[in-house]
Write a structure and sequence with these properties.
Helix content is 11%, strand content 38%. With 118 residues, it is mainly beta.
């Protein structure tokens, strides 16, 4: 990862998530499924709320985490990965719910890129 600021924020996020008063909103161009029948499928305009650690780790190129994507089954955990190069904004607050601009801890809008659909 060449974005040292993003790397530092993600490392701090891993530490901070041990305290349940910390809430994050991670925004990326897309995430990819890594488990189930949806493996390698992308979901664009990814806004991922992160509050509790569920299988969260990162490697040289992406953050990998377990998330609840099924509103009808809150116990179902889906494994996803988000390439670092696709993350354009991270917000953090102590109340969860609604995040405001003042909650921004990382913004790199030059990375924001909508896909072309034909």
């Amino acid at each position: 990862m060449s974005d040292l600021k993003l790397q530092a924020i993600i490392q701090q996020m891993l530490i901070d998530l041990g305290d349940e008063s910390n809430h994050y909103m991670l925004m990326a161009n897309y995430y990819e499924h890594t488990s189930t029948e949806k493996a390698n499928k992308r979901w664009y305009l990814a806004n991922i709320y992160i509050h509790k650690v569920v299988n969260l780790f990162f490697d040289a190129g992406s953050i990998n985490l377990g998330v609840r994507l099924n509103p009808d089954n809150h116990h179902q955990i889906e494994e996803i990965k988000i390439p670092f190069g696709q993350i354009y904004q991270i917000r953090k607050n102590k109340i969860g719910g609604i995040f405001d601009d003042e909650d921004n801890i990382y913004v790199e809008l030059s990375k924001f890129n909508l896909p072309t659909f034909n």
